[in-house]
Task: structure prediction
Amino acid sequence: MNIVKNLPNAVKWIVICALIGFLSGSASAFFLISLEWVGKLRDHNLWLLWFLPVGGLIIGLLYHYYGKEVVKGNNLLLEEYKTPQKVIPLKMAPFVLLGTLITHLFGGSAGREGTAVQMGGAIADQFSRIFNLDANERKTLIILGISSGFASVFGTPLAGAVFALEVVYFCKINLKSCILSFVVAYFSYYTVELWPVHHTHYSINTIPDYNLENLLWIIPVSVLFGLAAMLFSRSTHFWGSIFSKTISYPPLRPYVGGILFSVVIYYFGATKFIGLGIPSIVDAFTKPSENFDFLLKILFTGFTLGAGFKGGEVTPLFFVGATLGSALSLYVPLPISLLAGMGFVAVFSGATHTPIACTIMGIELFGIESTLFIGLSCFIAYISSGSIGIYHSQTVRGIKHQLYEKFKINKLDDF
Result:
């Protein structure tokens, strides 16, 4: 009887998932195609780098005069989940899309996850008006938006579904949201599959034996991954604080930042660190990266995002982790592709406090054979990365929070 009674509600939510999955997946597909196009255009015309200040000024003016209510980006989604106030404006989607494409066209160092998640969240929240949903149901919509955006942009539906749940885990989540997160992730994933979009493939070629020596090497390596995640998060927050304190007029922050960034990149020939950095990530799995590649990516990405340019943090985190793991292969007796793969997801885990989602992502990307190495690395990096991640508004409790409180080491998170 209860099944029959709840059937209309179940059908309603399946329809909502299908609509969000299709719209968010289509938006991500368009974004990925556009991003690939502007990336190729930039790489064949590096003189475009000199227009980064102009692009920054356009982004700054756009958000200052027309997008103040959406400038918080991913943090706005997390804040609305914790304390629902008002529907996220739909303009968040085109604003962040345009801002990210401008950033990448002119050579800024940024990612893409933040853009897809914000588009997904903004699209999803519009259904609260269409279906007249209450505050608790809006929370479910925000989870669906995060899930669909993440799953579609990376081609990892399981990780996307879990990431959406784990990133808000220490706020209240109901069972319905958990189930629907997986449903919408697959809707958005298969929507992208209908488009001419190709996700980058990575592979771990060699999995060593699961013996004590190999497993013990995971500990110091993963601690380094966690510290790299901590440095990445602090770098982004640090540069954001510097720009806000020194330049009072927000549109000038990315303009000034763009000037400094362009000059440094051009005169030091550091073009490998602009954009997503996919070629360097791919190379990291087969040949050792330079020792300081990961540090320079942290510096340039933190500066780009801190100055007010748009994009995500996750692909740069992949760059940092993969190149750090690759460089460590010269000193650690583990296969280079395994170390690069471990770093790829472990640094992401530490910076977002989502070790379960990152482990699942590692399995989806690299295969189930690497599960133990990937899982241990993600958990250790998560523990050792501090209690402040890339999202200001994320609530962090659980094992790590208790550990930091017990040993009174929260001061390590002060910047």
Confidence is low (pLDDT under 50) at residues 410-415. DSSP finds 18 helices and no strands in the chain. The CA atoms of residues 402 and 408 lie 10 Å apart. The radius of gyration is 21 Å.
